[in-house]
Amino acid sequence: MAFSSLFTLLDDITAVLDDVSIMSKVAAKKTAGVIGDDLALNANQVSGKDTRPERELPIVWAVAKGSLLNKIILIPLALLLSIYLPQAITVLLLLGGAYLCFEGAEKVLHSLFHRKSSEHHEAVSAEPEASKIKGAIRTDFILSAEIIIIVLGTVQDSSTLTKILILSAIGFGITIFVYGLVGLIVKLDDIGLWMLEKKNALAKMLGNSIIFLMPWLMRSLSILGTIAMFMVGGGIFSHNLSFVHHFIEQLNLSPLLFSLSNFIVGALVGLLLCLISLPILRLLKK
């Protein structure tokens, strides 16, 4: 009898772990865009001309600890919401998608119309370290909330234990992955300089290549992050608003064009939100 109960328990544990493995892969795919955006934003926020090289890794570590605290706060809140008010998940998904679309459109508009003033502002002001850390943690909180809501929407029909395991695995796994990569990215120039000091010709060549490519890498991360905002935000609207979903389905698009449709939806939503909100924000500032 005892052996039978033990085997039943082990079978149940195996079934739960199988569910966690399968659903984690699905959830990870859906959050990939936001993770890319998270990586790009944090790499930009914790680095910069006003950051001393010896302070780069301590800043990354401080933001990573803040990110872990964000997950500790957000995961239980998300679970309570899924139990007591599951209808709110779709609403929060749409709000999160709208925020991503708005942020993406604002970035594009700002880069097109305010590039010179932005460059001047960056040149004359050096952001204090504590302020930089707080800003990065706030950004992480918003993106973490979006990731957790997307994951929760994916595992909404799973058991509570499965939800806890998946949210914890993805939430904390993303923090380790993102800030590990951010730490590597912000020190790539130092790695390049270290290679230049070597006598080996190959090491010198690699060092020169890293230093030359660093500005392009940071710029590419920023562009890819903006594209990811539109893709994820547009995808949320396409999947959660039935009239948008049915319209796109009727077009019978290929997978590539379907992804492009998500980008277009995200860009249109973001542009519309910018046209509505930015004039209001300017009036409030005056």
Automatic annotation (TrEMBL):
<feature type="transmembrane region" description="Helical">
    <location>
        <begin position="257"/>
        <end position="281"/>
    </location>
</feature>
<dbReference type="Pfam" id="PF05661">
    <property type="entry name" value="DUF808"/>
</dbReference>
<keyword id="KW-0472">Membrane</keyword>
<feature type="transmembrane region" description="Helical">
    <location>
        <begin position="73"/>
        <end position="102"/>
    </location>
</feature>
<keyword id="KW-0812">Transmembrane</keyword>
<feature type="transmembrane region" description="Helical">
    <location>
        <begin position="164"/>
        <end position="188"/>
    </location>
</feature>
<dbReference type="GO" id="GO:0005886">
    <property type="term" value="C:plasma membrane"/>
</dbReference>
<protein>
    <submittedName>
        <fullName>DUF808 domain-containing protein</fullName>
    </submittedName>
</protein>
<dbReference type="InterPro" id="IPR008526">
    <property type="entry name" value="YedI"/>
</dbReference>
<keyword id="KW-1133">Transmembrane helix</keyword>
<feature type="transmembrane region" description="Helical">
    <location>
        <begin position="209"/>
        <end position="237"/>
    </location>
</feature>
